[in-house]
Specification:
Blueprint: E1 3-10, E2 17-23, H1 33-49, E3 56-61, E4 64-70, E5 75-82, H2 87-104, H3 122-129, H4 133-136, H5 138-194
Antiparallel strand pairs: 1-2, 1-5, 3-4, 4-5
Amino acid sequence: MKLYYIGILKNESKPAYELCVEKDLSSYSRFTRENYGEFMSLFSKTVAERTKPGQRQDVEEKSYTFHAYGRTEGVAGIIITDADYPALVAHQLLSKVVDEFLSRYPRSSFSSPKPPTLPLPQLKEYIEKYQDPQQADSILKIQKELDETKIVLHKTIESVLERGEKIDSLVEKSDGLSAQSKMFYKQAKSQNSCCTIM
């Protein structure tokens, strides 16, 4: 699972414009990183332009998924991940990033036709933290712990059942042993009855 891009784009007019962006292109070779970065910017603008205010959508393109969240303030949040990245976590992060951006920058700060780049330092932290969605999302983390607990519980139940089978065979053997013990007792009693010690 990989998170490649987090961006806030102005999308109330075409073309969409990147207001703040953070990319993680470390998984690409040094020679192709710039090309992949341009591809991500281009597709993010296209997806942002097609995302209506209040709409959430996921757009799949080859092995990438573009998660988009349009807001009525004239911006859209875009996250690009690989296809395996959980959409729930991506949309939680989108909500968080867009809310933080809008609380920091009022609409007037990006209302000009070509607004300046508006820094949001948290994006770098988020793109690192959310590389592992199970650590970043408490629900996924709890689900993973539950799955691990379930596996341990199944193993414990299986070992108890194996022990139960062993105990059953011991009980059967002890029942057989009991019958032999009773027979031995009767024979010993009958042999001892002939000889009385005075």
